[in-house]
Structures are given as structure tokens and as C-alpha cells.
Design a protein that fits this description.
This protein has one domain. By secondary structure, it is of the alpha+beta class. The protein has one helix and five strands. 42% of the residues lie in helices and 35% in strands.
């Protein structure tokens, strides 16, 4: 049997150098990949926050319009102004005869602040039948 000492150790230093260079290159590529994933996830998080803020602002605007419209049949003018953990909502309703207009605004609070508005126009037929003829949602 041949002993381990008798094995040829030719090119050992160059093989070690190659292995070291390969390990460093792989480590750099791995860190670069992780950095790209981190940047991409940060961008997507920002987009998700902006989208959520738009949805919340639109919901707040609709809620403000609903609060103002709560007394649509009984009053000629109504205003509502509320705030909660998501943001603020404002609603204004005016009625002339059978025609009415409702305006709602919503503004979010938090990291991303955004606003939205809702405008509704319609009429009241046969006593209590409310019909919306025109609606505009603005983000």
C-alpha cells in the first residue's frame, strides 16, 4: 500500500488559489443577488403602500358621501366630517327639489398620504326612491 505521503502534490498551490477565487466570486455574486432582491422588495413594498393608500382614500371619500347622504330624504342640506385611524372623511349634500348633489372627500394618514373625492348627482322619485344619475370617483 502506498502511503499518503507518497502521493503527488503537484499543482496544490494553484488549485488552492483557484478554489479561493471561485469562492470569492460566488460570494460576491450571492451578495449581489441578495441586494437585488432587497431592492426589488423595497420597490414592491412602496407600490403596495401607495395602492393601499389609494384604496383607503377612496373608501373614506365614499364613507363621507354616505354620511352626508344619511338625511337625503328629510333635509335639504347636510355636512359630515369624521376622522378615524385610517384618515379623515368629509361629506356635503345639497338638495333642490328632487335633484341632489353629494360631494365626498377622503384623506389618508400614515406613511403615504393621499386623497380621493366622490361626486354624485341624482334625483328622488316618488317620495323615497333615490336614483343616482352621475358618479365621479377621483383618486
Amino acid at each position: 500500500m502506498r502511503s499518503i505521503r507518497s502521493c503527488s502534490r503537484a499543482r496544490t498551490n494553484s488549485q488552492r488559489g483557484f478554489a479561493l477565487i471561485a469562492a470569492v466570486v460566488l460570494a460576491v455574486l450571492y451578495v449581489a443577488l441578495i441586494e437585488l432582491l432587497l431592492l426589488d422588495s423595497a420597490r414592491e413594498l412602496g407600490e403596495a403602500r401607495r395602492f393601499r393608500a389609494k384604496v383607503v382614500a377612496a373608501t373614506l371619500a365614499e364613507n363621507g358621501a354616505e354620511l352626508a347622504a344619511a338625511s337625503l330624504v328629510t333635509l335639504d342640506k347636510s355636512t359630515a366630517n369624521e376622522a378615524d385611524a385610517q384618515g379623515t372623511m368629509f361629506g356635503n349634500m345639497t338638495k333642490a327639489g328632487t335633484k341632489f348633489e353629494i360631494h365626498g372627500e377622503g384623506t389618508t394618514i400614515g406613511l403615504v398620504r393621499t386623497s380621493a373625492t366622490v361626486d354624485l348627482q341624482g334625483r328622488i322619485d316618488d317620495g323615497n326612491n333615490v336614483k343616482i344619475e352621475y358618479a365621479v370617483h377621483t383618486p
